[in-house]
Amino acid sequence: MTPVRKRFTVEEFHRMAQAGLLGEDNRVELLEGEVWELSPIGSRHAAAVRRLRRLFTPLEMEGACLIAVQDPVRLSPFSEPQPDLALLRPQPDLYQEEHPGPQDILLLVEVAEASLAYDLAVKAPLYARHGVLELWVLDLEGKRLHVFRSPSPEGYREVQTLAPGNHLAPAAFPSFSLPVAELLG
Fold first, then answer.
1. Nearest to residue 74, comparing CAs of 121, 146, 126?
2. pLDDT (tens digit, 0 to 9) for every residue of the chain, 185 residues total?
3. Where would I find the Putative restriction endonuclease domain in this sequence (predicted)?
């Protein structure tokens, strides 16, 4: 018999955590049925996520979105990544009944301190295949912002890389322009 790779569902992934196979301190996420171990969060990464949270707070305060920090999003029965920051459509119950899905996501942001290759080669295509409208990957080492828009099953059709000196607004909030230098810190 030829060995077959076992793909886990989100439900099986949650049961593994409940059974203690995945501890609370394990930094893992489920992508296309595979459990991926994430790199530890460094101080620059943590500071960048806090900075992003602070920069997007005015949108949340005016009720335009909900901000989720390192919370799961359910892309499919086999994928539940944990992006560093998500701007979500407002929902009165704050997604209490289920994690937000692609239709709820206005913008995802991944912060790359040691994970740039993973974010660009693994997560960006995954987000595109599942219809996430916009993804930003903040490259702390290279001091660049990678912007992905117009998702398709083959990947994002619009990709640009911005440096300090540029400004950018999320597609969902075109009048909310932010300096790339401020995003990078």
1. 126
2. 777 778 888 888 888 888 887 766 778 898 999 888 888 889 999 999 999 999 999 999 999 999 999 999 999 999 999 999 999 999 999 999 999 999 999 999 999 998 999 999 999 999 999 999 999 999 999 999 999 999 999 999 999 999 999 999 999 999 999 999 999 98
3. 10-181
- Residue that has been written with the tokens 């459990």 in this structure: 35
Cα dihedral 147, 144, 81, 43, rounded to 10, equals -150
> 87: closest CA among 129, 136, 14?
136
Tell how far CA 143 is from the center of its chain. Answer: 19
Q: From the options 3.90.1570.10, 3.30.300.10, 3.40.50.2000, 3.30.1300.10, give the CATH code of 41-184.
A: 3.90.1570.10
Question: Residue 184 corresponds to which amino acid?
Answer: L
pTM for the predicted model, two decimal places: 0.93
d(CA 46, CA 29): 18
